[in-house]
Amino acid sequence: MGTIMAAARKPLFLAVLAVAIFTGLLVSSLLFVTGLVVYVVAVLLAAQDPTLIEHQRMRTKRRGLTSQTFLYKITLIELAERDVRKTIDEAGKDLRRMLRATLEPQTRELLDQAYQLAQKGQQIEQYLQRANLAGLNQRISELQQRIKNTSDQYTREQLEQTHRALIAQRDSAQALQTYIGRITSQLENILANMQAMPAQILRMRASDVDAQMMSSQVANQISDLNSDMQAFVSVLDSALGQTSASAS
């Protein structure tokens, strides 16, 4: 449905629809029907375009991503992934078929991992903005002073409980600051691997004898990277869960 809507909004097809409506009103209802049929057929055919389908898939995956830092990195990775697909499409028939069965799915999965990492990175960014580490440290210092100056046992216990909660919140926020750097490094790792693939594919095209072996090696390399990314996302989920618990 998303690709059909995207195709339906293409300027050329909208122009055909406008002409159909215009001629139907001024000339003949038959021309309107004919133009409408042409418009619908053109939209349905365009909706099957693999490029449009892939574009819509990317738009869906990056939906909600507003962080300029992570949007920039995702855009670079998308461009690199597009270069990989283009290089695969330009390969000979046998090599192209082999790469589409092995390397292309792994590359698409790697792109999906990048989207997940970027979303997690944005989530952490937003949390850190709300957490306000400077404000937390100030509140902790003020509580420490109040605890020191309080003689009532019950009041002291309540203040100490609050103090421990704030310390836990601050520690979680500081840990998440570290994860921001790790996410950035992982995205750069994905980008570097993506950018290296077109040259590796060209080497396969130049060496038909070793193409299958090289294809398997590259696919295994990307598969290992995907596994690493999945494990890292699991660690991030755990860290974010702990942070939410400490903040509540």
Structure description:
This protein has 248 residues and is mainly alpha-helical. The chain has two domains: 61 residues; 181 residues, no CATH class. Helices cover 90% and strands 0% of the residues. It contains nine helices and no strands. α5 runs antiparallel to α6. The radius of gyration is 27 Å and the shape is flat.
Can you count the beta strands? 0
Terminal-residue CA separation: 40 Å
- Average pLDDT, all residues: 78
Radius of gyration: 27 Å
Categorize the overall geometry: flat
Structural class: mainly alpha
Strand proportion? under 5%
The helix/strand series, from N terminus to C terminus, equals HHHHHHHHH
Task: Write down the domain tally.
Answer: 2
| Fraction of residues in helix | over 70%
User: Largest beta sheet, briefly?
Assistant: none
Number of separate helices: 9
Which labels suit this protein?
mainly alpha; single chain; 2 domains; 0% strand
Task: Show the helix and strand layout.
Blueprint (H helix, E strand, L loop, with lengths): L1 H7 L2 H16 L2 H18 L3 H12 L6 H22 L3 H39 L1 H17 L3 H54 L4 H37 L1
Describe the structure in brief.
The protein is mostly helical and 248 residues long. The chain is built from 9 helices and no strands. Helix content is 90%, strand content 0%.
